[in-house]
Amino acid sequence: MSAFVITEVEITNPEVYGQFVQQVTPTVEAHGGKFVARGGALDVILGDWAPKRLAIMEFGSVDQVRAWLSSPEYTALTEMRESSANINMVVVEGL
To answer: Cα–Cα distance between 55 and 7 in angstroms, integer?
Structure first.
């Protein structure tokens, strides 16, 4: 069953975040994931949630997501991620 990772991002250091984005993409792809939305225009249509930036990734399963999150390639980017953005992330199973 597919799984979607939804990430809300508040960029605090655009230069470093740009480097993070370049380096994180191959880690997602190496674990069978792909970005299906990333930083596009947002339009709040219901409620008061107003994220500044969203990214949505699709993986083949929640297990693939967990393997990606714990991979040495992704965990090596922790300092870069934490120093450049405040991020909230959830995973949800697809239909």
So the answer is: 5
pLDDT in the model for residue 16: 98
CATH of 3-42+49-93, one of 3.30.70.100, 3.30.110.70, 3.40.190.10, 3.90.226.10: 3.30.70.100
Q: Write down the pTM of the prediction.
A: 0.93
Measured over all CA atoms, what is the biggest interatomic distance in the chain, rounded to whole angstroms? 38
Spatial distance between the Cα atoms of 5 and 91, rounded to a whole number of angstroms: 4
What is the model's pLDDT at position 92? Answer: 98
